[in-house]
Design goal:
The complex is a heterodimer of chains A (235) and B (250). Chain A is mainly α. Chain A is built from 9 helices and no strands. The longest helix of chain A is centred in the middle third of the chain and has 41 residues. The longest helix of chain B is centred in the C-terminal third of the chain and has 18 residues. Chain B has 2 domains: 144 residues, P-loop containing nucleotide triphosphate hydrolases (Rossmann fold, 3-Layer(aba) Sandwich), CATH 3.40.50.300; 76 residues, no CATH class. A 6-stranded mixed sheet of chain B has the order 6-7-8-3-9-10, with helices on both faces. In chain B, strands 2-1-4-5 form a 4-stranded antiparallel sheet, with helices on one face. Classes of the chains: A mainly alpha (235), B alpha/beta (250).
C-alpha cells in the first residue's frame, strides 16, 4: 500500500527533482567520508590477514592481492558497506520521517493536497539507488588501495606481487553482480526505513524505537537478499 | 461554506463523535469549543480528511468531500490552509521556504512573484524580516505566525486552526486571534478554529459550536454564550473558582 503511494504520480516533477538532488547530497555524499575510512582500513586488514594465512610455499604471494580484490569486490564493499549504510542512512531516514509524523509535518503535507509518501520517500529511494553504486565503486577502489598500502608497508607482499595479484583472473561480471546487489540493497535500506518512520505513532520514544527497528529489519533483509542474489547470479 | 452532516466517529469501542451536524459560514470565524477529549480535534481531522468518519458527510460548498475519490480530495485540499497546534513547520526549511512551499508545489509563479507573495504573507502576520530564520530559531508565537503565513500563502478558501493559542501567553494569544479574524474577513475565507480558550471565543467567536462528550451540545455566538442557561456550557465557561462567583444563578 505504501509503495503504491510512493510510486504515485508526482504533483510537480521539478520539486521532486530538487528533492532528489538534496537527498543525493544528504544520503550519498554525506556518507562518503565514513565509507572511505572504513574501506581503506578494511582493505588493509584483509590484506594482512590473507598474507598471514597464506603460509604454504605452493601459494604464490600475488594471491594476497587477488584474495583482497575478490573479498572487497564480491562481499565487503557491496554487502558490508550496505550494512553500515543501513545503520547510518537507515536510522537517519526512519528518525527524520518519524519526527515529521509525530510533529504533524506529514499531516501538513497531506492537507496541502500533497502525496506525503511520494514526496518524502520516492526521492530518497531514487537518490540512494542512483548514488550507492558510485559509493560502492569508490569503496572498492579505496579498499584495494588500502590493501596495497598496508601490504607493502607491512612487508606482507611486494608492490609488484600485489598489483600482479589484483590484475589476475579478473572477471568483469563480478562488478556487475556487486553493483546489482548494491542497487537492491539501496532500495531495501530506504524503503524499509521510510516505512518504519512513516508509520510511527506516539512520541520521541517511539521515533527511537522505529529507528532501531529499521536498522534490525534492514540488516536481516540485506543478508537474506544477499544470499538469494548470490544464488541467482553466481551459482 | 462547510457543512458537516451527522458525523459519527469511533476508535475501537470508544465513540468520540456522535451524530454532529453544523454549518461553518463563509467570512466568519467559526469556533468549535469543548473540554479536552470532547472530540473537537477528531471533528477537525474528519473535516480535512485525516480521519474517515464511520458515517456522515462533509461538504465543501456543496462538494461531498467524504465521498470523493482520493484524487478529488486532493483538489479540495489545495483550497485548504491549516494552522496546526504545534505549527508543523518543516524543520529543514527557512521561514520563507516554508511559506513558499505551497506556491512552489502548486503554482507556476516566477521567483519574483513568489517572493512578493511570501513577503505579503509574512507582513500580514507581522513577521517581516524573519525570512531566513529556521523554525528552531523562532519563539512559540512566531512559529504559530509563520505557520499561519504558510496556511494563507496559496489563498485558501478554507482555513482550519487547531488550538492556535495553546502554549502561548495571553498577549500573544490575542495577537494570533486578531490575525485570524483579520485574515478571515480580508480574504473572505471560511475559518474553523478549534479551541478551549475562552478568550479566543469572546474575541473572535462569530459562530460557536460547543461539543460535549462527542455531541453537538450547543450552538450560538460569543454574545449568547454568556447568557445561556445551558449547565454544561456554564460549567465550561466559568470553570475556575474565581469565575464561578460570576456565574449567573438560575
Amino acid at each position: 500500500m505504501l509503495l503504491k503511494r510512493v510510486f504515485g504520480k508526482p504533483e510537480k516533477f521539478s520539486m521532486y527533482y530538487k528533492q532528489i538532488l538534496y537527498e543525493i547530497d544528504s544520503l550519498g555524499i554525506g556518507s562518503l567520508w565514513l565509507i572511505a575510512i572504513i574501506s581503506v582500513f578494511m582493505g588493509g586488514v584483509i590484506t594482512i590477514q590473507s598474507a598471514y594465512n597464506f603460509t604454504s610455499p605452493f601459494i604464490p604471494l600475488y594471491a594476497v592481492g587477488l584474495g583482497t580484490r575478490e573479498s572487497i569486490v564480491l562481499e565487503f564493499s557491496p554487502t558490508i558497506v550496505s550494512l553500515i549504510l543501513a545503520g547510518k542512512v537507515g536510522s537517519n531516514i526512519a528518525s527524520e520521517i518519524g519526527t515529521m509524523r509525530i510533529s504533524e509535518q506529514i499531516d501538513a503535507l497531506e492537507i496541502m493536497g500533497i502525496n506525503s509518501a511520494g514526496y518524502l520517500i520516492l526521492p530518497k529511494v531514487v537518490a540512494a539507488m542512483f548514488i550507492n553504486p558510485f559509493l560502492i565503486t569508490i569503496s572498492m577502489f579505496l579498499g584495494v588501495l588500502g590493501g596495497y598500502i598496508m601490504g607493502v608497508a607491512s612487508g606482507a607482499c611486494t608492490s609488484y606481487e600485489y598489483i600482479f595479484g589484483i590484475q589476475s583472473f579478473f572477471i568483469p561480471f563480478n562488478i556487475y553482480y556487486s553493483l546489482t546487489k548494491t542497487v537492491i540493497f539501496a532500495f531495501i535500506i530506504t524503503s524499509v526505513s521510510a516505512y518504519h518512520g512513516y508509520y510511527t505513532t506516539g512520541g520521541a520514544l517511539e521515533v527511537g524505537k522505529a529507528s532501531t527497528r529499521s536498522v534490525v529489519y534492514n540488516s536481516i533483509l540485506i543478508l537474506v537478499a544477499n544470499l538469494v542474489i548470490t544464488q541467482l547470479m553466481l551459482v | 461554506m462547510i457543512e458537516i452532516k451527522n458525523i459519527n466517529k469511533s476508535f475501537g469501542d470508544r465513540k468520540v463523535v456522535n451524530d454532529v451536524s453544523f454549518v461553518f459560514e463563509t467570512g466568519k470565524t467559526n469556533i468549535v469549543i469543548g473540554e479536552s477529549g470532547s472530540g473537537k480535534t477528531t471533528i477537525l481531522k474528519v473535516m480535512v480528511g485525516l480521519h474517515a468518519p464511520d458515517s456522515g458527510v462533509v461538504e465543501y460548498d456543496g462538494r461531498p468531500f467524504t465521498q470523493q475519490s482520493e484524487k478529488e480530495k486532493q483538489e479540495v485540499r489545495k483550497e485548504i490552509g491549516m494552522l496546526f497546534q504545534g505549527g508543523a513547520l518543516f524543520d529543514s526549511l527557512t521561514v520563507e521556504q516554508n511559506v513558499a512551499f505551497p506556491l512552489d508545489m502548486f503554482t507556476n509563479m516566477s521567483q519574483e512573484e513568489k517572493n512578493e507573495r511570501v513577503n505579503y504573507c509574512l507582513a500580514k502576520v507581522k513577521l517581516e524580516g524573519r525570512n531566513k530564520l529556521f523554525p528552531a530559531e523562532l519563539s512559540g508565537g512566531m512559529k504559530k505566525r509563520a505557520a499561519l503565513a504558510r496556511a494563507i500563502a496559496n489563498n485558501p478558501k478554507y482555513l482550519f486552526c487547531d488550538e492556535p493559542n495553546s502554549g502561548l501567553d495571553p498577549k500573544t494569544s490575542l495577537v494570533i486571534d486578531a490575525l485570524i479574524k483579520e485574515i478571515t474577513q480580508d480574504l473572505g475565507m471560511t475559518t474553523v478554529v478549534i479551541t478551549h480558550d475562552m478568550n479566543s471565543v469572546m474575541e473572535i467567536g462569530q459562530k460557536i459550536l460547543f461539543i460535549y462528550k462527542g455531541n453537538n451540545w450547543w450552538t450560538g455566538t460569543n454574545k449568547e454564550i454568556l447568557t445561556t442557561d445551558n449547565e454544561e456550557i456554564l460549567d465550561f465557561v466559568y470553570a475556575s473558582e474565581f469565575l464561578k462567583q460570576l456565574k449567573p444563578r438560575k
